[in-house]
Amino acid sequence: MLNTAELKTSRTTGPLVELVKKSFTGRLQSPVAQAAMLEVQNVSVEYGAGRAMAYALEDVSVAFRPGKLTLLMGPSGSGKTTLLSVLGCLVTPNRGSVRVLGNDIAGWSESAKTELRREKIGYVFQAFRLFRALTAMENILLAMELSGRTGRQAREAAEAALLAVGLENKGHLLPKEMSGGEKQRVAIARALINDPPIILADEPTASLDSKSGNQVAELLLGLAEKQNRLVVVVSHDNRWLPLCHRKVVLQNGCLIGDDMTRNTTGKLGRVSRLSV
Amino acid sequence: MKLAWRNLSNDRMRFVVTIVGIAFATFLMIFQGSLFTGFVRASSKVIDASGAELWVVPRGISCVEFGSPLPQRFRELALGVPGVASVRRLAAGYVSYQKPSGQRESVFLLGADPGNGKLPVPLLSAESGAVLTETLLVDESNADKLEVATLPLAVEVNRQRANVGGIINGFGSFLGAPYVFTGYRDAVRYVGLGTEETMFLMIQVAPGGDVETVRQALSARLPQADVVTRSEFAFRSQFFWVVKTGAGGALLTAGLLGFVVGLVIVSQNIYATTMENLEEFATLKAIGAPANFVRGVVLQQALISGAAGALIGLLATFPLVQLTLRFISWIYTPWWLPAGMIVVSLLMCALASVVSIRKVIAIEPGRVFRA
Ligand SMILES: Nc1ncnc2c1ncn2[C@@H]1O[C@H](COP(=O)(O)OP(=O)(O)O)[C@@H](O)[C@H]1O
Ligand SMILES: [Mg+2]
């Protein structure tokens, strides 16, 4: 969980951060608000217009807390990606509100949302989406450059990030020279480099073989359990079930299930042994 | 800067194609521009070289190449006008030139009184100012065509004796028929003007005199002729050759087409380069790159390609123009042409990237989660 001390040492500045700090200090007095770090209320997303209009999401309300890995499940086309995009401030819903770190982002300017995405949210994609012309190291450095961090310290931080995902010797490789699992771990290192409290991953293991899939899954679980981040993973892979703390199920754009699957301490010794 | 460079160098083939495209476009623009500029310059070359402030031209005549006779007494009338320092005559016309081999060639013969302009006149020596008779001067670009291998060379002009006595340069003809220079009296004889006839009068205004005042005074004295400044006559001649003749029209069209085609090639390539990386720009936006950062990358990619292409195009142009000079002696590349075309190329790159940036900025960052 973020605390005031952590916010004070935050590297970032700017109106958004000030806003978040203010609201955060305010929110700390209220235990209820403190619990939900990311939440949507009565959110609907429509595609098309007129007769062709269809709901990708219909009146969905759900809140997420730090320290938990939430699995978002549902059949193909049920709206998982759309919900994740709304949570990630990448898609503006037609109706309903999105609250990130206690702030309703309705009416925020594009640049404020951009800053929010950059500083507070890390994204992991099924297709990795590394910059193909940049090495693993440079991919991470680019994300740091966006936050204004360059130079030797940035390099050292990027090296540490590669070490954390077990790729300390692969920093010089281009994406095309890496396996899928390695690419996804670079992507996770990139998503983490600005230390965001929120991690959103869409089918992060779908393109991977089971061994690299497990590595990636354990990494993401560690982010929630050991680093107290809020992690939402979209997947229809049942192998995630024993790892997640909570399972949210969508169908036809509606939320049809929300279960706590196990408590935070976890029964999976195998997973908690991993250092992340 | 790094991302822009890497995006370009990552896909070498694409980069090479882009650069070659832009290089070709730049070359095309400069080369066509040089042909056109050279043609324009050549079409008023004799007038510009005259050094005269004013020209007395037969009524309605647009250029030296299609002259008609003026009464000889106009020269004396002009000399009587206050402010006129000197009057030089120019006689010109197409004549048949018989080469040593016996073959005939149509040439444009010009004979001017000697004076302070740059019009070639065969002189005994520069100091004496005495005009050599029956002597022809041939431009080096036409020496082969006119079979001038040794000097002096006995030839015939309109079946009359003549000697090629010297080689000049800078008077390559754009007409097809070579320019050949001789003395005024010989020109009158070769061209076949009557004894009371001349063709053009080149007026030198007295030092400190007002050209416009003298022009008006001359006009009043010679109402049957046009009195124009050198630049007016030069423009008249350029306009005639460029606009009223097929040759100039074709060059103008080719020049404009070269320009347009060049612009299209440049913008197409830049647009394609940006679109190639559209997905990555979406990712950049999603992970929180400010719009200006993305714009910067797109613009840098465009300008790097543009600068590299334009530079290569420029480097290719000079040797090719030099080579072309052997066949088209009047092709001319003024300094501002390559400079201008490079600026135009870069502007075009920037413009094309602005158009493609709009597309990039418009992409919805939400698409990144879709595979
Ligand atoms: N850009 C779009 N245009 C039109 N319909 C879309 C678009 N994106 C998603 N949809 C529709 O919204 C619904 C939910 O899609 P999505 O969120 O991708 O589902 P999931 O990730 O669960 O497979 C689907 O019916 C899909 O066809
Ligand atoms: Mg999906």
Folded structure, characterized:
The complex is a heterodimer of chains A (276) and B (371). Chain A is α/β, with parallel strands linked by helices. Chain A has a domain at 65-81 and 108-273: Rossmann fold. In chain A, 36% of the residues lie in helices and 22% in strands. Chain A has helices at residues 4-8, 15-27, 31-35, 80-87, 110-120, 136-146, 151-164, 180-192, 210-225, 269-272, and strands at 38-47, 54-64, 69-73, 95-100, 103-104, 121-124, 198-202, 230-234, 246-251, 254-260. A six-stranded mixed beta sheet of chain A has the order 6-7-8-3-9-10. Chain A has a four-stranded antiparallel beta sheet with strand order 2-1-4-5. The longest helix of chain A has 16 residues, at 210-225. The radius of gyration of chain A is 18 Å and the shape is globular. Chain A starts with a helix and ends with a helix. Mean pLDDT of chain A is 83; it is low at 1-34 and 264-276. The radius of gyration of chain B is 29 Å and the shape is elongated. Chain B has helices spanning 2-10, 12-42, 45-49, 73-79, 184-191, 211-221, 230-244, 246-276, 278-286, 291-325, 336-362, and strands at 54-58, 70-71, 84-98, 104-112, 135-139, 153-157, 160-168, 179-183, 197-198, 200-205, 225-229. In chain B, helix 7 crosses helix 8 (246-276) and helix 8 packs antiparallel against helix 10. In chain B, strands 3-4-8-5-7-6 form a six-stranded mixed β-barrel. Chain B has a two-stranded antiparallel sheet with strand order 2-9. Chain B has two domains: 2-42 and 247-369, no CATH class; 60-223, no CATH class. Chain B has 371 residues and is of the alpha+beta class. The interface between A and B is medium-sized, with 32 and 25 residues. Magnesium ion is lined by residues 80-81 of chain A. Adenosine-5'-diphosphate binds next to helix 4 of chain A.
List the helices and strands and how they pair.
The complex is a heterodimer of chains A (276) and B (371).
Chain A: H1 4-8, H2 15-27, H3 31-35, E1 38-47, E2 54-64, E3 69-73, H4 80-87, E4 95-100, E5 103-104, H5 110-120, E6 121-124, H6 136-146, H7 151-164, H8 180-192, E7 198-202, H9 210-225, E8 230-234, E9 246-251, E10 254-260, H10 269-272
Parallel strand pairs in A: 3-8, 3-9, 6-7, 7-8
Antiparallel strand pairs in A: 1-2, 1-4, 4-5, 9-10
Chain B: H1 2-10, H2 12-42, H3 45-49, E1 54-58, E2 70-71, H4 73-79, E3 84-98, E4 104-112, E5 135-139, E6 153-157, E7 160-168, E8 179-183, H5 184-191, E9 197-198, E10 200-205, H6 211-221, E11 225-229, H7 230-244, H8 246-276, H9 278-286, H10 291-325, H11 336-362
Parallel strand pairs in B: 4-8, 5-7
Antiparallel strand pairs in B: 1-10, 1-11, 2-9, 3-4, 3-6, 3-10, 5-8, 6-7
Helix pairs in contact in B: 1-10, 2-8, 2-10, 2-11, 7-8, 8-10, 8-11, 10-11
The structure holds adenosine-5'-diphosphate (ADP) and magnesium ion.
Residues 80-81 of chain A line the site of magnesium ion.
